[in-house]
Design a protein that fits this description.
This protein is mainly α. Helix content is 71%, strand content 0%.
């Protein structure tokens, strides 16, 4: 299959979905009210609640949700061939992921930017609120570790990329100060300044690497196990306008620009997909990269890019606190998810334009690759062009960078392959780090809510500095502990199961909200359908991972985590279904069940 055909199909599906399905949900199901004052204005405090330009919000939200998942997941799932991944990305993003993100963002805006666990408590019960809060803390820690381990694999002993990523922090601080203090509202000027400085850092990368300063950015694996949690803690503490929002905003230009450039490169080169539509590993549960059958593991491996529970944390975390008008909810929630699906399609193409032998040689250890009886085709030549041995560099990040560099070099010449490869590595790390900083901050909010309710009331005040410092350190320290000594093979499966399990819980909460507030109860099927699929998927994947992977390896910590998470999910789903029957009975009896659709003055 020609890659250009796939790009056109994906673009048409996603654009039509935004125009029609997204518009239907916002107008008919949720009933967006543009005249309603959002929490960003009503609770503005200059630190967490800040009215923000819609494109800055979109940039922050997209950068925060688009972590390693849409880049690494499709690359790893290419083991099954390109067709299973394409079907799940397009169908999953439109029917499940975009609906999930839009509904949860709307709910949190109506609940004054409160967290998912607080929404669960109001919409279902206190029991579900508590179980959701505990589930989120478990899942968030594993999600951050799963994202961070990809950064470690891609950035260790790579001073060129480390320098560029490091420089985005002071650049973001400068842009934040410029946009909110020096020249308030001058988004265009700040954008030009930020993007220009990022490209300057990219250009200076080789010079810095070759100089005496290069050793300062040549970080080992162990060093990154410390640096990444430390960065997450700092990002969770500083005001959102100073680091998190401007860094994500300027990063989004680079991310979206690169993906569009890759799409143009594919249009120009129109390469053939070398991976078959259906590979031999669809028929077995013992693939060399992803262990487990194609279902449910294609939907577990490709989380971000199709449906991701982590998005619920952003949609009920930082984003609803800065969105300026309800009319922006469709652009940010529905549109941000569809943009991520397009990123996932590009990542899948970048992996599958490589020869199958080269793809498996990069993504499996040498001993495993030897058992596949495959021959490499271009691997030696690719290694020479990027300046390093690519064989056995597992985790997906390197494969994506090589695939991107391969497409770009066919447009501009092979002599630039090394630069495109380093750009690809930097591009992936930037994607992931913007999710880590937002995710750690969301974890801080959730932990403060939880401790304030059940331990010590002052923790609930997000401006109480002892609580801010302690909870930021606790969240970053917890996922840093999971990261220490871990690798993609050990962390990614439990990350995928936990991530999709959170999506299941969020869809349960969203269904309850729609049943209670929508004009027609039949509209609840927009969340019930994806919820039903995900319940079957995550419980099948969780039990399979438990019995075939973690218990046989005597990994009792991860085994216990899976059991706990599945048990919490059962509590929330059963409690949610109980609430559904109660709401349906009340509405048929003519009793008012509205929560978020009430007039603002009565809330």
């Amino acid at each position: 299959m020609n890659a250009l055909t796939l790009v056109i199909i994906a673009a048409c599906v996603l654009l039509l979905a935004y125009r029609f399905y997204g518009a239907f949900i916002t107008a008919k199901v949720l009933v967006i009210d543009e005249s309603r004052i959002t929490p960003a204005h009503r609770l503005a405090d200059g630190q967490n609640y800040v009215p923000t330009n819609k494109w800055v919000v979109f940039g922050h939200h997209f950068a925060a949700i688009a972590g390693a998942g849409p880049l690494v997941g499709p690359v790893l799932a290419a083991q099954f061939g390109y067709l299973p991944g394409v079907v799940w990305i397009l169908v999953g993003s439109v029917m499940a992921g975009a609906v999930h993100d839009l509904v949860l963002l709307f709910a949190s805006v109506r609940y004054n930017g409160r967290s998912l666990s607080e929404i669960a408590k109001e919409e279902i019960s206190k029991v579900s609120g508590l179980a959701t809060g505990i589930s989120i803390l478990f899942i968030l820690v594993m999600a951050m570790a799963g994202l961070a381990v990809v950064v470690v694999g891609a950035m260790k002993n790579n001073p060129w990329g480390s320098f560029i990523i490091t420089m985005t922090v002071p650049i973001a601080l400068l842009v934040g100060f410029y946009m909110y203090r020096l020249r308030p509202g001058k988004v265009g000027e700040a954008s030009v300044l930020g993007v220009g400085l990022v490209f300057l850092a990219i250009a200076l990368g080789p010079m810095v690497t070759a100089s005496g300063f290069g050793s300062f950015f040549n970080w080992s694996e162990k060093a990154m196990w410390v640096i990444l949690p430390a960065y997450g803690m700092v990002a969770a503490i500083l005001p959102v306008w100073l680091l998190l929002a401007p860094r994500d905003y300027i990063s989004s230009y680079l991310k979206i620009g690169t993906i569009l450039a890759l799409a143009l490169g594919i249009i120009w080169v129109h390469p053939q997909l070398q991976m078959p539509a259906i590979s031999e590993f669809v028929k077995t549960a013992n693939g060399p990269i992803v262990k487990g059958p194609v279902w449910p593991f294609v939907s577990i491996t490709i989380a971000c890019g199709a449906l991701s529970g982590f998005h619920a944390l952003i949609s009920s975390g930082t984003t609803p606190k800065i969105i300026s008008s309800e009319r922006d909810i469709r652009l940010v929630g529905f549109g941000g998810m569809l943009m991520e699906a397009f990123v996932a399609i590009m990542a899948l193409i970048a992996a599958t334009v490589l020869q199958p032998g080269d793809y498996f040689a990069i993504n499996t250890p040498a001993k495993v690759f030897a058992t596949l009886h495959m021959q490499t085709v271009d691997l030696k030549n690719l290694s020479n062009m990027v300046g390093m041995d690519l064989a056995g560099r597992t985790g997906g990040a390197v494969t994506l960078a090589v695939g991107m560099a391969h497409v770009f070099s066919r447009v501009m010449g092979d002599h630039l392959m090394k630069y495109w490869y380093q750009f690809g590595i930097m591009f992936e790390a930037l994607f992931i780090l913007t999710t880590i900083d937002a995710g750690t901050r969301v974890g801080r909010y959730i932990l403060q809510d939880f401790l304030g309710r059940y331990v010590y009331k002052p923790f609930a005040n997000i401006h109480w500095w002892p609580g801010v410092l302690l909870t930021s350190a606790a969240i970053s320290g917890a996922w840093g502990y999971m990261l220490w000594g871990g690798n993609v093979a050990s962390i990614w499966p439990i990350f995928g199961v936990s991530n999709q399990l959170l999506a299941t819980l969020a869809l349960t909460i969203g269904t309850t909200m729609i049943l209670r507030n929508s004009k027609k109860m039949i509209y609840s099927w927009i969340t019930i359908l994806p919820l039903t699929y995900m319940v079957a998927t995550v419980f099948r994947a969780g039990t399979w991972s438990l019995t075939h992977q973690y218990l046989p390896a005597h990994d009792y910590v991860k085994s216990a985590l899976i059991v706990i998470m599945l048990a919490l999910a059962v509590i929330i789903i059963v409690d949610g279904v109980r609430k559904w029957f109660e709401v349906v009975a009340d509405r048929k009896a003519g009793r008012n069940t509205a929560t978020v659709s009430l007039p603002l003055a009565s809330k």
